[in-house]
Amino acid sequence: MTEHHDIASTGANVDRLSEHSAKRLLWLGGVALLWGLTLAGRLIYLQILHYDEWTEKARMQQQDTETLMATRGAILDRESNEFAVSRTTKYVVLNPKQIADTDMAAGMLARFLHMDKDAVAQMIHRKREAASGGGFLVLKRKLAQEELESILNLKKSKFKGLALRDESVRIYPKGSLASHVIGAVDHEDKGSSGIELGLEDELQGLAGSRRVLRDSIDRRYGAKEEVKPVHGKNIWLTIDERIQFTAEQALKSAAEGCRCKTGSVVVMDPRNGDILAMANYPSFDPNDPVRSSQDMAARLNLAVAAPFEPGSVFKVFTLSAALETTDLGPESPINCLNGSINLHGRVIHEAKRGFGVLPMRQVLARSSNVGAIQVGLRVGSNNLYKYLAQFGFGKRTGVPLPSESGGLLHEPSKWDATSIGSVAMGHAVMTTTLQLAQAGSVIANNGYMVRPRIVLKRQRPGAPVEWEPSAQAVKVLNETNAFKMRDMMHDVVLPGGTGTRAQVAGYLTGGKTGSAQIYDAATKAYTHKYNASFLGMVPLTNPRLVVVVTLNGSAEYGGTIAAPVFREVAAAGLRYLEVPRDIEPAQVARKMPAPDRETENDASEPLPAGTPADETPEKAGAIKLATAPVSGARAPNLMGKTMRAAISEATKAGLVLEARGAGVARSQRPPPGKLMARGDHIVVEFRRRR
Amino acid sequence: MATLVAFLNRFTWAGAADRSASTVDNRAQAATKPAAQPFLLRPFPGEEIYFVPKRLDNSRVVREADPAAAKQQIATFSGATVAAFLVILLLGLPQFYRTMAGFQVEKLKAEQDKLIQQKTELIVEEASLTRLERLSELAAAKNLVEPKPNSVVHLKNLHRRPDQAKKTDGPTGVVPAKEIAQ
User: Fold this and answer.
1) Do A668 and B98 count as a contact with CB atoms less than 8 A apart?
2) A65: burial class by Cβ within 10 Å (0-12, 13-18, 19+)?
3) pLDDT tens, A324-372?
4) Which ipTM score applies to this complex?
5) Residue in chain B nearest A78 by alpha carbon
6) Å between A174 CA and nearest CA of chain B
7) Domain range spanning residue B17?
8) Do the beta carbons of residue A639 and residue A663 sit within 8 Å?
9) Domain match, A208 and A250 both
10) Fewer CB within 10 Å, N- or C-terminus of chain B?
11) What's the pLDDT at B55?
12) Is the Cβ pair B59, A79 closer than 8 Å?
C-alpha cells in the first residue's frame, strides 16, 4: 500500500515537474524569441535602415584622410651644397565652435604656444563671430618641438577642437648667399622670386593622400587608398658657392667703399655658358619675411632685371664689328680728332683730354670716345646693329630667372643721325650685366656664343638625373677676330690702359672698363654719377672665366672701382677651379708706350697698396700676346699620326695628350693651330685604318 | 497523440466533426472514384493510425555509472571546442597578423618620417655651419690667410684624367660647330 502510495505520489510529482518544466521552457523560449526579435529588429535598424549614416560615423571614427605632403625640391650649387631645403613641420588649428570656455582654452593655449592670452581669446572670439560661420582658426605656424609636444598632450587630454596639420618650411641655410638667384617663397610655400619662382612647377611637386585606419585609442594600424605624393625636383645650379661668396664679398666691399647704390657681378664660364656666380648689392636674407618696400627693392636681381647704359664697355663690341666688317685691324690708325667730333651738329668730346691718331688697339686701351665713334661710322648703322644683335643685346638670354630684361637696342630705322655715335660708345643702348657677360663670352669662346645656363641638372627623388643641355653654340665672330679682340683687351689692363687694376697675377688678363654717366630723368640731364663697369676674361690663352662687374651711382670710374672687384673675383675663381697659370708671375704684362695718365678717358689709378711686388706691372717682363703666346704653344697638327708620334709631338709642345681609341689620329680637340697654355690637355681620337 | 499526418490534417480537413473512420473510408474510396468526390483529398499513408500515450513511472530507474562514456563525452566536447577554437584562430589569425603588422608598419613609418626630419635638420645644420661667411670669420679669428696666387700649385689638375672628372661637371662644354665638323 505504502509502496503504491509512493508510486502514485511520485507520479504526481513527476507530472507537476513536467508541467513546471514545460512552463519554464515556454518562458525561456519566449524570452529567447523576444531577444532574437529585438536583436533582429535592431540589426535591421542599424544595418539596413540607417546603414549609410552609421557607416559614415564609423568611418569618421576609425578612418582619417590625411594629406601626404610633397616635399619641395632642394636647390643646390654645382658641388651639391644646399642653398634651399624644405623641412616638414606642424601648425596648430582650432575649431572655435567646439570651445565651451573661451577664457580657459585661451589661457591654456597661450601658455603652451607662448602667445598672449588676450590675443588668443580675441582670435577665437573673432573667428566664432565671423560672417563666414567660423571654420578653423590657425593659431600658430612652425611649431617648435616643445610646443608640439604640449599640443599633443592637450589633444590626449580630450581638449576638443584642436588639430595639428603638416606644413612645409623653406630654409635657406646659407643665408644671403646667392639670395637673388635662389629667390624666396611666400607664406603658401610658393616661389615669389628667383629660381624658386622661375622653376616653381618643377620644385613644388604634387601632394598625395591616404586613408589611415585608427583604433579606439587613436593609434594607426593601416592605410588604404594611398596616393603617393610626387616630390619636387632637386635643382642643381651652375653656381659655385665659393666663387659666389667671393663675388658677393668683393662687390659689397667695393659698393660700400664708393657709396654706390647698387651693383652686380656675373661670373660665367665662356665654354659652356655656366653662370658660376651672380651677385647683387644690396643683398637680403631669404629667411626673413618682406617687411617694407625697401626689402622688396633689395630682392630685385639687378644682374638680369636692371638694364643700364653700359658706356665704354660697349666699345669692345663696336670694335669687334669693325674687325668683322671693315679692313680695320688692331694696328690701323684711327684719327681721334684731338678730342672732339661734330656729328651732324652734335659735338661729342672725350671725357678728358683728346688724342690725335691712335692705333685701334689704343682706342680701346685708352677708351677714346671719338675713336670709337670713328670706328662706328666705318662700320655703319646696319652692320653695327646686326653685330650687336648677334652679340645678344636687345633680347633676353632665356635663363629661368623672373623679371629678366632684354635691355634696349633700337633698330637702325629708329636711329637718328647721331645715334650711331652714341651706340658706338655705349650710350642710347641699355644692357643687363648678364647680357654683357654673354656678349663677352663670344670673344672668350673664339667667336662662338653660348647661351648662359643657370641650371646644371635636375632630379626628382628616385628618378634619373636630367642634365640641362647646353644650347648649340652660334658663330658670331671669326675665330681670328676673336683672338685679335682678346689681344686688344689685354692692352686695357697693361700700364697705360684704363684697367690696370684688373691684372690677375699669373694669368694673361683682358678686359674693358666702362664709366657711363647716369641720366637723371627728373632734371633731364646727365649727372656726375656713373655706371662704373668692367668686362674681363682670364686667362686670355684659353679663357675660363668671363667676369662683368657693374657698380651704379658711383663718383668713381670703372677702372678705379670695378676693375679691382674683377681682379679679386677672377683670382679666387681661377684658384678654386684649379686653372693652371699661363704666364710666370714675373711676366705680368707687356709695356705700352708710356701714356700720360691725365689723358685717360677712363681713369687709370695707381695700384692699390698692398699689391704683391711681383704683381706690379712695372716689375714685370714684357709680353706680347699676339706675337708670342707666352709659355704656351699652338696645338700641333696630329692628324694621321700614330699614337707614339702624337705623344712625342704633344710633349714637345708642352701639352698633355689624352688618347682615346687606338690606331692613327683621326680627330683632335682643340684643332691644330689653336693657342694653348703649357700643361693644357689635347684630346686626340685614334682609329684604325679601314 | 496523433501522428504528424493526422496533425496536419487538422488544417487541411474542413470540420472536426467529419473527422471519422467513415470519412477516411470515403476518402479512400474517393481515391479510387475521383468522379464521385473530386475535391476529397486522398488520405496520407498511416493517417488512420493513432498513438495512445501511456504513462510510465521510471523514477526509480537509476542511471548506471559509465566512466568510459563520460570520458568519451569530455573528450568529444574538448575536441570539438579545440577544433572550433582552431578554426576560429585559423580564420582570424591572418586578420590579426595584418592588424599587428599594420601597427608595426605605421610605427616604422612614423620612425622613418622622424629620421628623415632629423636628416634634414642635420643637413641644414651642416650647411649653416659650413657657411663660407662663418668659416671666413673663424679663419680670421685664427689669423689664417688665403695663400698668395704664387703659392698655389695645382698638381691635381695636371694629372687628372677625363674619367676622374667630377661627376657634377655635367655634360662637356659646348664644342664649336667647326670642331664638331672635324
Assistant:
1) no
2) exposed
3) 999 999 999 998 888 888 888 888 888 777 888 889 999 999 999 999 9
4) 0.70
5) B168
6) 6
7) 1-54
8) no
9) no
10) N
11) 87
12) no
